[in-house]
Amino acid sequence: MLIQNIKSDSSFPEELEGEVFFPLFNKKIKVSEFTSDNIEYANECAKLLKELNDEVIRHLCLASIRYCNAFLEADSEEQYSFDNERDVLALIDPRFLLIEQDETRPAIHLELECDWEQEHGMEWAIRDGKVVYVGSYNGVSPFDDFIEKDEWNFAQQ
What we know:
single chain; 157 residues; alpha+beta; 7-stranded mixed β-sheet; DUF6985
């Protein structure tokens, strides 16, 4: 079992929460919004964190840079430049792996904090090995239908 320290969520007693190690950031993050009925599914979602390939990581990093610089530009702030796209990860702090209750295909849905958007943070969604959403935290689902080239979804640009 990859998810450790499983216990009832104090805010939602019918739900469970736990922790999983996220190798990309070399830290443990919380896993939430799962129940005893879908704990195996939650574990499959957690397993995907360990299996992120270089192509997906590169896509996440480039999309995060686009989001970062678009946000800074809109706020009339100086944009960042990075020598390597992975350098953006130093500005990102993953907080939660969120588990979708009604799905059977495992997916990654992450709530993250970032240096440039401290009020709302950011969100990553990965489905079937493809990055489908990177942007401001909006409570999307990896299983939503995403319109290509929506300006708010930096994964699609």
